[in-house]
Amino acid sequence: MRTVEDTYALTPLQQGMLFHGLRDRRAGAYLVQMVCTFVKDLNVPAFRLAWERVVARHPILRTGFRWEGLDEPLQEVHSRVELPLEAQDWRGLSAQEQGDRLDAYLRDDRTRGFDLGQAPLFRLALFRAGEDGHRFVWTFHHILLDGRSVLDVLKEVSVFYDAFCQGRDLQRPLPRPYRDHVEWVQRQDLRRAETHWRGLLRGFASPTPLTVAPPQECREGRGGQELRLSASATAALQGLAREHGITLNTALQGAWALLLSRYSGEEDVVFGAVRACRHSTVEGAESMIGLLLNTLPVRVRVPPDAVLLPWLKDLRAQHLAVRAFENTPLVKVQEWSDAPAGVPLFESVVMFENYEWDALLRTLEGGLAYREVRFIENPSYPITVAGHAAPEFLVKINYDRGRFDEPTVARMLGHLRTLLEGIASAPHRPLVELPMLTEEERRQLLVAWNRTEAETPRERCVHRLFEAWSGRTPGALAVAGGGRRLTYGELNARANRLAHRLRALGVGPEVPVGICLEPSPEAVVGMLGALKAGGAYVPLDPEDAHERLTFMLRDTRVPALLTRRGLLPKLPESAARVICLDEEPGMPGAANPDAQPGHLAYIIYTSGSTGAPKGVEVLHAGLANLVAWHQRAYGVTPADRASQVARLAFDASVWEIWPYLTAGASVHIPDRETRMSPGRVLAWLAAERITLSFLPTPLAEAAMEEAWPEDLALRALFTGGDRLRRVPRKAYPFRIVNHYGPTEYTVVTTCAQVSPEDREPPIGRPIANTRVYVLDAHRRPVPVGAPGELYIGGDGLSRGYLHRPELTAERFVPDPFGASPDARLYRTGDRVRYRPDGNLEFLGRMDQQVKIRGFRVELGEIEAALVRHAGVREAAVVAREGVSGQRLVAYMVAGGVPPGPDELRAFLQEKLPAYMAPQAFVFLDSLPLTANGKVDRRGLPAPDDSGVPASAPRSPVEKALAAVWADVLGVERVGIHDNFFELGGHSLLATRLISRLCAEFWVELPLQTLFDAPTVAELALAITRRRAGETDQEGLERLLAELEGLSDEEAEQYVARETGVDA
């Protein structure tokens, strides 16, 4: 028997809550649990009667929702409902057991959720805890009530309870029904609202990311933390608000806007704000019981030079201006904005209440004494911030534990505290000067994690350190390669002869010497000879383009160029004297170098953004620091055998040679063919008994996929030069250490050991005598987990760029944290973030971030996800311009049978947001590399149409689905790989679409299906599988019914006859 007495529409916020509730019925979105204690003996029958009376008085408490088969959902008011009151006696349990029972009940209660089609959408539970005490839980769906209504319901229950306990009945006037507010909202003309919201949001296209490091372990559910300002800080904020016509809500919104700006690096941010709509609707709404709220965007520009107080007043003015439009449906505001279809306007929400529940409920009239009141909520946004104007300002953060972990949220609360206290204490300062980090954080970021002081040798020039070993062990092997071997004594003698010759040509301190050779013992002779002459060497790659070689020779103006006769035809004309090291021995005798730590040791050219190479001037002091650190960190001894794999023009070659030749160890050089093959490299490492080896990152990643020889002598493998995207699949009997460092900081800046347990390989902590800072655009330290630009200072800092004073001044900047006034930092242009353990994580280049559908995308994050697929060995992702804007293209090298595009999409769906999924997948035999072993992104081919799936429907189900989609979305044509939400689908349309599909396909589809399968192709497959599953279930039920009552022998014969299977 139907008991529906009234039906009417939903408010916009109710529609959104219904959508989230249907999307995932298990998630418990918008489920609220109020937990409290009644300290007096409770009259349970009177308590039940009081609740029944209040439910009878207010239609919203008897309301359910209907959506199936409807274009627009409706709320249905039932004339009566059964009061869902559960009672248990826990008096026999200890306090600990009662607490455990309550936690278990709350957890199970949340999991149970609500069927939004079945009224009532609340339930009550009473647990008798003692002779005169009860624990009480009221669970309800937020779609029914806002905070003001919750308070009024509790007031009424208390008043009626008091009357019933005294044997009295009570008559109270009824408030205006909630239906009147809903109808008023439905009648609103939105044309003025559209003008307002379009103006406010013009130019804003993507949600402000609250960018933090993801949790170390993925957890489900919501978490909550809170902070309470001191009484003095609260009083200062309240005094500021009274004096200047703002509110505590304004202060909280301002603090959150500043936090978002600092975390994201954006000066234009948007977040949501919950607005109470009781003053902008029908008369009598102040006492109405229902949901009179709306969540709408707040846009805040955060110019650094703006003064805090006028800026807060502007924010308050925006709040007041929105009052006339605060009932506007959010979905309409979304449509009127410049955000792409399917992209939310905000990911965080701020709300404010002028009371604290526990204190307020203690003062209620009536016979119920509410104590220890707390609310457990489950909003749908990733993070919500709630302010409470208690005697001491209270701020609570509710967060998605899949996005944020406890330490991250605790830091956020600390930052909010610092910002709020700063607002209260100095409202007349510019925003840029308002502190956010706590003093403890600043010490950690600037000092504690930069305690890297270490001793370096007094003789800070590597050629002098080498000479000490050549005198001590002249017969020991120094360098070998290409069938040639040089002992320390032989290498020293040859370098001395060359140094004499170079000095005769005018080489001395600050004079560069060109070396155009492949990795070889002769190249080591050339480098050492140049240093012994007091000069600096300039490695030139014989395989470089003629134009590049010409530029570098002209730029350096070298008086001498060292090479071999076979390379002479490749060399461009220059004024340099050419010396062939395979022919000219030079003059015998000891060198008399006079180079000092502050002189140049070498110049290495890196590619410039404008195309012109830039020569980095590296000093002896930086080289000596690198050598001393490496020898200490890896325990280098004369027994070590090191590899030299990198080309000479790659600064890693510096690191492969000098730490060993200054420690009595030997350096071994493979031939070119070996260097290019992971399998050959591994075999060579084993055959040569190499103990310490560097492999450029792409080569190291490829080598990790190979079968390693059993007889390796290796004790450490070093990677570097490019982002390490994968971790070893298993533990090896040697260390794998990832290194990071720009050429401008003498090869290595940070390092970290990598293990199979790492989710993402870090770039680690700074090496000896090195400082690293993660700073924002105003050179302020950013919080742990937030991205920023990496700045580097310390002993390894190079002088700058040869003949490029403007570029040097731009990239080498004053150190605001340095102990000396002339201290400098190098701006790397690399985007990184700190992990909580002090390790740095590399995110990409500052200038390589791309925007896809309004979202900022880190290409490296997609690459790291792809290589976690067993069938992908290497990956590079680029953004290419297409007809409809930028699209992501993934280039991969297969690790076996290449996975198909659908398999890769499904794999990435579990690891990345939908907007980060590439639109095309291209498999190559190998990724193109630069001469230094980095992925050459410019060399990646343009994808052909085979990388993009066809879009025409292929089956009757897909054709029917595409037609329904086009009708619901109001578009002319839908492809099978088009995403419903990217085409403009939103909560109301999603509900409408599912309702249509359930009716047309005769299948029950939860709304979550559309999120799991948001394209026509994916949804067609889901519907087909679901229909098959339902058919199988029907057949099973029919079979069981037929078998019922048969003997075992008859049942076996029946099964064999029906299925063709011998039972």
From TrEMBL:
Q: Which residues cross the membrane?
A: none
Classification via SUPFAM superfamilies? Acetyl-CoA synthetase-like, ACP-like, CoA-dependent acyltransferases
Example of a GO cellular component annotation carried by this entry: cytosol
Recorded hits in InterPro entries, A to Z, give:
AA_adenyl_dom, AB_hydrolase_fold, ACP-like_sf, AMP-bd_C, AMP-bd_C_sf, AMP-binding_CS, AMP-dep_synth/lig_dom, CAT-like_dom_sf
Residue ranges of every copy of the Carrier domain listed in the record = 952-1027
Pfam family, any one: PP-binding
Q: What's a Gene Ontology MF term here?
A: phosphopantetheine binding
Cited PANTHER family: FATTY ACID SYNTHASE (PTHR45527:SF1), NONRIBOSOMAL PEPTIDE SYNTHETASE (PTHR45527)
Q: What is this protein called?
A: Carrier domain-containing protein
Can you name the source organism?
Handelsmanbacteria sp. (strain RIFCSPLOWO2_12_FULL_64_10)
